[in-house]
Predict the structure.
Amino acid sequence: MEMTPLDLPVLPDVVTEAPVAGGYPEAFRLDSLKNSHLDSEPLAAEWQRRAQEELQEKEEWRERDIQALRELVEAEDGLMCSTSDQFLIRFLRAKKFDYEKSFKMVQRYCAMRSRDPENFEKTLPSLAKESLECCLQTVLPHRDQLARRVFMFRAGKWNPSITSPQDIFSTNLMCLELIAREQKSQISGIVAIVDMAGFGWEHIVQLSVEYVRNVVSLVQNSFPIRFREIHIVNESYMFDIIYALVKPFLSEKIRNRIRFHGTAGFASLHRYVSPVILPSDYGGEREPFNNSQLRLALESAEDYFQELRTYGYTNDQVPTAVYDKETTHPFPAFCLSGTLPE
């Protein structure tokens, strides 16, 4: 199949089917992750235009905007993180250059490390080798029809007897950290595909309400990357249980970006993600699902992840103002890893 770039000037806030013609810059491009953590090249003109159209980013104001966010970060007592241009612009792009929202995301990004340190215990490639060898996650080598990265997670392949939920959080986070270092991905956002085949009760009982809250927080307001689409495939009736637990925490915007495709093959998924870039085991034209390239990319970024582990709040004292009034759950005492309610 010929790789014909597709066109969509401005991405909508809801998931739409892929266009069928046009010339979107770098659609379907083979774009290796191996050097993504070293991304510092000036953006091409078409990406600068895209940043301005979609994120209100203006080249002539960029330094001023970064400095404004830097001053907010430096004025925050106890906050420990980088104040480099490369680090801060991730948050500005994630929040369309709204200083207040960008700063709030920096606070949450650092607070989650202090607030729930158990989720970050293996956020070093050298500590996560066993989890990564389970081949649960990958980042596709080709960008999609809108030049976005595609992250895939095979939730049903998770073996709880050897990998904890916290290990999953750590490895997924590291994948997102690599993607978030890419300037193009900061601008375009990402697509996530979650495969629920094989996900059952042995997985559900490992998850607490607090853990689910942390995962949702990562996706929608604590991590500097825009999740443009989330596709759920091979979900069974068991998924209804976990989605009922997740849904109260989801914003309307994120709910609108989720699509469920069921178990009747991948034709539905292909309406949104072209088979041109998908692995053959998802009805695509590429090699079967593997994460060898991703693992190499992570290994080469060990020093970067070591630095990230120093971020947080002094003595883990997170100001209460960092979090807005958090969404309450209809079953606040319900913990799937404990006793089920009557």
Summary: The chain has 14 helices and seven strands. Residues 1-13, 327-342 have pLDDT under 50 and may be disordered.
